[in-house]
Amino acid sequence: MTGRRERQITLRGTQVEKKENEQDSRTLQKKWDRTKSRLRAELGEDIFKSWFARVKLEGIKDSTAYFSVPTPFLKKWLRSHYNDRLLHCCNAEFGDVGQIEFRVRRPHDSSDVAIQQDAPRPSAGPETISVRQPDVGGGGDVATGYQDFEGSPLDRRLTFDGFVVGSSNRLVHAAATEIAECVGQSQMRYNPLFIHGSVGHGKTHLLNAIAWHARARQPHAQVLYLTAEWFMSRFVQALKSKAAVAFKESLRGIDLLLIDDMEFLQGPVIQQEFCHALNSLIDSGRQIVVAADRAPGKLERLDARMRSRLAGGLVAEVGTMDGDLRRKILEKCISDEQREDPNFIVPDTVIEFLASRLTEGGRELEGAIIRVRAVYRLTAEPITIERAEYIVRDLMSTSEPKRIKIDDILKIVSKHFGVNRSDLLSNRRNRSVVRPRQIGMYLAKKLTSRSLPEIGRRFGNRDHTTVLHAIRKVEQLMADDSGLKEEVELLKRMLRD
């Protein structure tokens, strides 16, 4: 009898303890939910989804908060970038938390599976670009076996459907579309594809669009999107952990590799290893797409072998946006805003005004419409040219054309054509000197406010008729020679940058 009573007491005690543990677990989860809300508010939705969606609180003991994550990379990234922020938010909810500890969950941890069903993964490596894709066909995650190879995050908004095509980007858009259609096929027509252009002209948009489209058509394709800085960071980590061989081997199984901001890749060891990976992928028929702010030959930080290899495929420029393309981008941004607010109307005169004054790039145009929409929503006042000018006045101040001096033109022309400045100002009549001198006079007329006599004086005390002849000669040559025209346009961009 006594034994039965003891067993009953023990059973009741166990049940009470179980209920208390369940209550503690629920309380802990509620506090963790509030902590995540704080992180989401402080960091923004995109960053929170990228880095904290798969973080799980395991428990708190002796002033230490224990968390689990699915990959070693995420563990290292959180520890190096968000440890203090997470510690601060935990203290606000849990009280006295002195430190944070992370562990890596097993690949088939049931808790990780549950989290994956409800939250995006932190990045877009070969394991998966994203848990959910935009509505472009295809879907679902694809396991590739690269459990620890995380890529740079992709933006769901940056698809081919959202890319506005104009005369300055039609070629590169066509090439990008064809590559996205052909991923996984044995024959690659343009490999590598090298995209270059100024900031804000759509290079990153095209890389994201290629990745999304390729995955929609070939769900099992191994697609990896990386920035150059991200690649350097991953490679340095691999060197420190003595896993460089495994790192390089994992790259060789990729079907489509997209590298953004190539101009930032530096360091002889990293460049050498990247060049080996590049050669291996191209030789095995895998597609490479690279984006940078200038053509391969202008990337002085890269060694000659890599510049040569990058220039060996199709090199396509995203050119400066003309007024028509800027107008189309503004109209698309307005159309996107009107899906939420059909009453948001921007008159054609305002669109024309913004297109003429905002000339830097697409991000500037998108930002202008976001501002105009915000002011309209808050004030309900009609959008006029005067009001639009006031709203985006700081953007216009940064888009004022650079003041170009004749000294700048002499410096750029002498460097580009390999002639001495003294030769440009001399009376030498060699063709190797005369042509650069004429182009310099042409640029001085087109890019400065100087008069013909003043330009003549600055180019070796020549009279205005000589300058006028040079301008007409260059214009005629440009009309007959598209190569020269492109060369002159390049000099203009170099002077404006």
Task: Please specify the SSE layout and strand pairing.
Elements: H1 2-43, H2 45-52, E1 56-61, E2 64-69, H3 72-81, H4 83-94, E3 99-104, H5 110-118, H6 170-182, E4 193-197, H7 203-217, E5 223-227, H8 228-240, H9 244-251, E6 256-260, H10 268-283, E7 287-292, H11 304-310, E8 314-318, H12 323-338, H13 348-357, H14 362-379, H15 385-391, H16 393-398, H17 406-417, H18 421-425, H19 431-447, H20 452-458, H21 464-480, H22 482-496
Parallel strand pairs: 2-3, 4-7, 4-8, 5-6, 6-7
Antiparallel strand pairs: 1-2
Structure notes:
- With about 500 residues, the chain is an alpha/beta fold.
- The chain is built from 22 helices and eight strands.
- It folds into four domains: about 20-120, GMP Synthetase, Chain A, domain 3; about 160-320, P-loop containing nucleotide triphosphate hydrolases (Rossmann fold, 3-Layer(aba) Sandwich), CATH 3.40.50; about 325-400, Helicase, Ruva Protein, domain 3 (Orthogonal Bundle), CATH 1.10.8; about 405-495, DnaA protein, C-terminal DNA-binding domain (Chromosomal Replication Initiator Protein Dnaa, Chain: A, Orthogonal Bundle).
- It has helices spanning about 1-45, 45-50, 70-80, 85-95, 110-120, 170-180, 205-215, 230-240, 245-250, 270-285, 305-310, 325-340, 350-355, 360-380, 385-390, 395-400, 405-415, 420-425, 430-445, 450-460, 465-480, 480-495, and strands at about 55-60, 65-70, 100-105, 195, 225, 255-260, 285-290, 315-320.
- The strands form two sheets. A five-stranded parallel β-sheet has the order 5-6-7-4-8, with helices on both faces. Strands 1-2-3 form a three-stranded mixed β-sheet.
- Strand 1 (about 55-60) and strand 2 form a beta hairpin.
- Helix 1 (about 1-45) crosses helix 4 (about 85-95) and helix 12 (about 325-340) crosses helix 13.
